[in-house]
Write a structure and sequence with these properties.
Blueprint: H1 8-17, H2 26-33, H3 37-50, E1 56-61, E2 65-70, H4 73-80, H5 89-101, E3 107-108, H6 109-116, H7 120-135, E4 143-146, E5 149-152, H8 156-168, H9 188-204, H10 211-229, H11 245-262, H12 268-281, H13 294-297, H14 300-317, H15 325-339, H16 352-358, H17 360-367, H18 370-376, H19 383-402, E6 407-412, H20 417-431, E7 435-441, E8 456-459, E9 472-475, H21 482-498, H22 508-513, E10 516-521, H23 526-539, H24 547-557, E11 565-570, E12 579-591, E13 594-603, H25 611-620, H26 635-642
Parallel strand pairs: 6-7, 6-8, 8-9, 10-12, 11-13
Antiparallel strand pairs: 1-2, 3-5, 4-5, 12-13
């Protein structure tokens, strides 16, 4: 296939759409790629234009969306291997990482500019992005710059860590190799041989690992063998782990076979490195884990970290998750994995905003780990590690919610009994864990039916069933279509969050009305805005002077910004009074690629900490589209919109 010169974004679009088994809407694609629907339409037009002779096309169908049609799968595989485009910063950062990892000599910056056809200014920005990704984060390699040359420190282990990250990110789980550049710089015959031997190793040994752990192990052994053949060996010993005699013997047997087939010899340091990874990557046998056996499989430190974290969740949010055995076992295993010297987690780059939005509550509970993580693990958890802890919490809340009382529900349907009965069965198919349908009644019986013990009325007529607000009312089609299902799912989702906080908390309307208000702020820096809003609490002596820094620390570890329009900020530093400070922008503020019109900051009294859940439920999970706030600047407009 000729070079198509698709940018990384377009290749990501192709990569994502080929994993879909049916049509996907432009809006969904736009959300995953964090661009506009118009950009998606333009990208698809360009992709189709460039691929028109390849038998690969993205077709569209009105009301359904887009779908990838491939006449020849080999052509698609070749396209996925394309690695000659440097149109995106991510492409260029990856190229810089490869070049630095595979050379001992300093690289001339002018040569690097010429290779990627970019200006000096663009390269400087790329180097800043590179440092953010690999110098300021794992593996924390030192970038040495001398005049017009750059090079890495001579740490072989860190170089290999970067190479593993380059390959494992965007790994193609439908095939083998990285989605965008397959096995560039690796010997394909070598890695194929190692994959086969490792597969046999996992079959004959009672060892279970996550998918990413297996892929990283394949890459680790391949890169180790390749680097040793090139004369680059580790010079410092890996962090030690307990010796499992059977596992060590099995590891050495695997490496003996690989050495023989590749005609090389791995030094003891190299063998030890691979053993440490295999030991760290193995999953415990869950069937043997229970409340009664945890002390046999986990260190006292990991058990104490887990117990103290769950106690903290209980004390702050009045939410006791410690009695859910399956959750307790899972979170113990996760903390154990994070404590080991080598661990890798799948990075969800494209889906992270969607995950953050869907699990907003879970992230807040997960964030409580940070101080304990610093104490027990010696560091704060990063975004990805917090995400997987949020997944643990999400599962725990699902289990917790299954024990909540079902919503007592009445169906008011204007159609004949068979239609009402059919609607009931459809509702129970999807929501039998959450609702208990107690009656089917005709619309005209609404004035004589006793609704005093009803939580929810599902009606097919667009009219008020009961005048007072003793229960909720939801309008659906008698045929219960996909929109109805989504609407009820969202309603139940919010009701579950309702159960996480006391209804004696301050009223949101009162908090908004009595808040400190700053209208039409003309600032272009998020830090200045944070200082302005937090000063309302500090100057009134509700919070300590370090409140601003605590908000900034929280923002740096786990950003508050997850969607456009409105941002909600807070921290658990105790306040003498629960109150809000609200700022509206004269011009929307660009913040983490989102455009923000309004920022609401909360100071919370310790007895009201679960107000965080109520604020999220009311302001973030409401049915309105926060994008509609883009022209609103006044207090009256904002309050009216948020409380609609």
């Amino acid at each position: 296939m000729k070079n198509t010169s698709l940018s990384l974004r377009k290749r990501k679009l192709l990569d994502y759409i080929q994993t879909q088994h049916d049509y996907i809407t432009g809006e969904q694609l736009a959300f995953h790629l964090r661009v506009s629907s118009r950009t998606i339409r333009n990208d698809i037009l360009e992709i189709n234009q460039k691929l028109k002779s390849s038998g690969i096309q993205i077709i569209s169908k009105k009301s359904f969306g887009y779908k990838l049609v491939v006449d020849d799968p080999k052509q698609l595989k070749m396209l996925n291997r394309s690695n000659t485009s440097f149109l995106s910063r991510e492409d260029r950062v990856r190229h810089i990482a490869f070049r630095l990892s595979y050379t001992d000599k300093p690289i001339n910056l002018y040569d690097l500019q010429d290779e990627m056809f970019i200006s000096q200014t663009t390269l400087e920005h790329d180097l800043l992005a590179f440092q953010e990704k690999y110098v300021n984060a794992y593996p924390f390699i030192k970038l040495i710059r001398s005049k017009n040359h750059i090079s890495f420190e001579s740490d072989e282990r860190k170089r290999r860590s970067i190479l593993i990250l380059l390959y494992v990110n965007h790994w193609d789980y439908n095939s083998r190799g990285n989605t965008f550049y397959q096995y560039q710089y690796l010997e394909e015959n070598m890695i194929n041989l190692i994959i086969e031997e490792l597969q046999h190793f996992l079959q004959v040994n009672p060892l279970k690992m996550d998918d990413i752990s297996i892929i990283v192990l394949n890459l680790l052994i391949t890169i180790t063998c390749q680097r040793v053949k090139m004369g680059y060996c580790l010079t410092n010993k890996a962090i030690s782990v307990p010796i499992d005699a059977k596992l060590l013997a099995a590891t050495n047997h695997l490496l003996d076979i690989i050495e023989d087939k590749l005609s090389l010899s791995l030094p003891e340091f190299e063998r030890n490195e691979i053993y440490v990874y295999i030991y760290s990557g193995q999953l415990l046998d869950a069937s043997k884990l229970s409340f009664g056996t945890v002390s046999h499989y986990f260190t006292p430190a990991i058990i104490r970290l887990t117990d103290e974290y769950l106690l903290k969740v209980k004390n702050i949010f009045e939410l006791d998750l410690s009695g859910i055995e399956d959750f307790y076992i899972t979170i113990l295993q996760y903390f154990r994995y994070l404590s080991l010297p080598i661990h890798y987690l799948n990075v969800m780059e494209q889906q992270v905003n969607r995950v953050r939005l869907d699990m907003h509550i879970e992230y807040e509970i997960a964030y409580l780990i940070q101080d304990l993580s610093l104490e027990f693990l010696g560091r704060f958890l990063n975004d990805t590690e917090l995400t997987y802890l949020a997944f643990c919490i999400s599962g725990a809340l699902e289990s917790y919610n299954r024990h909540l009382p079902k919503l007592k529900t009445v169906i008011c349907c204007h159609m004949n009994l068979p239609a009402s009965w059919s609607l009931k069965q459809k509702l129970l198919t999807h929501f039998h864990d959450s609702i208990d349908i107690t009656a089917l009644i005709p619309i005209h019986y609404k004035d004589i039916y006793p609704f005093n013990d009803v939580d929810l009325i599902i009606t097919t007529a667009d009219k008020t069933i009961i005048a007072d607000q003793t229960c909720d009312q939801l309008l659906v089609s008698p045929y219960f279509n996909a929109h109805d299902q989504s609407q009820l799912d969202h309603y139940i989702f919010r009701k579950k969050i309702d159960a996480l906080y006391h209804h004696s908390l301050p009223d949101i309307k009162d908090l908004l009305e009595e808040a400190f208000w700053h209208e039409c702020i003309d600032l272009d820096n998020p830090i200045d805005l944070i200082k302005l809003l937090s000063n309302d609490f500090i100057s009134n002596h509700y919070v300590t002077p370090d409140y601003t820094q605590q908000i900034l620390d929280r923002e740096s570890q786990l950003s508050f910004v997850v969607k456009p329009g409105l941002t909600l900020m807070y921290c658990l530093s105790p306040s003498k009074k629960t109150c809000l400070s609200i700022g509206t922008m004269e011009h929307r503020l660009k913040w983490h690629s989102q455009k923000i019109r309004c920022v609401i900051m909360a100071a919370i009294h310790p007895t009201h900490y679960s107000l965080i859940f109520k604020l999220i439920n009311t302001l973030i999970y409401n049915d309105f589209n926060l994008e509609d706030m883009r022209f609103m600047k006044s207090k009256s407009e904002i309050i009216s919109f948020l409380l609609q």
